[in-house]
Amino acid sequence: MDKKISDKVINRLTIYHCILDDYIEGNVEFISSKQIASLLNIDDSQVRKDINLLNNSGKCRVGYIVKELKKSIEDTLGFAKTKNAFIVGAGNLGMALAKYDNFTNYGLNIVALFDNDKKKIGGTVNYKLILDVSKLPNLAKKSNVEIAILTVPKLYAQQTADYLVKADIKYIWNFTPVVLKVPNDVQVWNENLMGNFLQFTYNI
Amino acid sequence: MDKKISDKVINRLTIYHCILDDYIEGNVEFISSKQIASLLNIDDSQVRKDINLLNNSGKCRVGYIVKELKKSIEDTLGFAKTKNAFIVGAGNLGMALAKYDNFTNYGLNIVALFDNDKKKIGGTVNYKLILDVSKLPNLAKKSNVEIAILTVPKLYAQQTADYLVKADIKYIWNFTPVVLKVPNDVQVWNENLMGNFLQFTYNI
Predict the structure, then answer these.
(1) Percentage of chain B with pLDDT > 90?
(2) Are residues A111 and A161 in the same domain?
(3) Is A136 helix (H, G, I), strand (E, B) or coil?
(4) Total domain count, chain A
(5) Percent of chain A having pLDDT more than 90?
(6) Is B104 an 8 Å CB contact of chain A?
(7) Under an 8 A CB cutoff, do A204 and B171 touch?
């Protein structure tokens, strides 16, 4: 990657990717920037600008070749290099994320889930094992996992984060509404559902 | 509201709000922009700039008065006017969102969940009823609900959206990885989990 791509563009490119998936399922070969734009209610010059950032857009006389454009988004955004991650907290949200098959398409491989509830431990969800959280440090080392998706209840968020840090987890995708305190070499990405909701409803 | 606040600022303000909640729980009266900044690993000039957008920041000699700053964020972002919404799809994700008590704090009131699974209908989650989806149009009208949170499986996303549109739902918070086709008077907010993940991992 030579060009730096902004967060907003990454976000739009993944949505274009969803559209391309639908077109492939429908056996459609070509797509125009206008078609993408009208589905998203945005300007087609924006779509073209975004696509121009890709190394090979699959541009042709009638628009873009769906398969090539899809592949190009994948290459550019690095879907290809699969990243291993744990889900920590096998409640409803953790389960929902484990079932979210789209993750695999985007290069995120959920290795296992962790919980401390004896009733859940040993079970599986979407072919992934739910393990005792005490097994996490060892498996992180063995499987070289550095990403954890944190879906524990609010009350346990910080202490679980501390535990993850000790287990050499370097990236925490935080779904709890808690602002975590972590050392400088650990990155936290706050999945701020309420922030998203408020952006959405700000003008209602 | 006289000043237009950007999405990024709204997002940060809701995270500051989480921090203020923690401080209130810990009975701390004052907070400085430096303290907020260091928790989020951002510059404190940024924090001050964001807070300056609020009508009344609760600024005082030693920083900000936690309770006033919190209230000011709530007033500015409109947490006060409660919005009613339905969750459509009572799977793991729908359940997780129904249990997410933070929604209430931010002015989102989940009226009910809907599903078409006879085994789920009649049940409750977090004191909210799971109803037959056929009852949605009537309840939307009676309770004046215009927001739907869409958490059905990918395969049923578009047909459910069509059904919601017919029931006069005007805002769809879309958690499915499908780009929905809706009329112009309906707004869709795509909760693009994969886009967020890729922003996060783009540099790993």
Answers:
(1) 65
(2) yes
(3) helix
(4) 2
(5) 65
(6) no
(7) yes
- pLDDT tens, A86-141? 999 999 999 999 988 778 778 889 999 999 999 999 999 999 999 999 999 999 99
Confidence (pLDDT) at B197: 80
E strands, B96-200, are 108-115, 124-125, 128-132, 147-150, 171-174, 187-190
Q: Which residues in chain A are contacts of B130 at CB distance < 8 A?
A: none
CB contact under 8 A, A22 and B179: yes
Amino acid identity, position A100: Y
- For residue B26, give both structure tokens: 């810990």
Instruction: List all residues of chain B from 2 to 61 with a beta carbon under 8 Å from chain A.
Output: 5, 7, 10-15, 18-19, 22, 39-41
pLDDT (mean) for A155-161: 96
For residue B95, is it within any domain?
yes
Q: What average pLDDT does chain B have?
A: 90
Can you tell me the ipTM of this complex? 0.79
Q: Taking residues A197-204, what's their average pLDDT?
A: 76
Domain extent at residue A28: 7-77
Q: Are residues A37 and A62 in the same domain?
A: yes
Q: Model's pTM, two decimal places?
A: 0.83
CA distances from A153 to A160, B3, B17, B135 (A): 10, 35, 18, 32
Q: Among residues A79, A88, A83, A81, which one has the least CA distance to residue A148?
A: A88
Q: Do A195 and B92 touch (CB under 8 A)?
A: no
Assign residue A110 the CATH number of its domain: 3.40.50.720
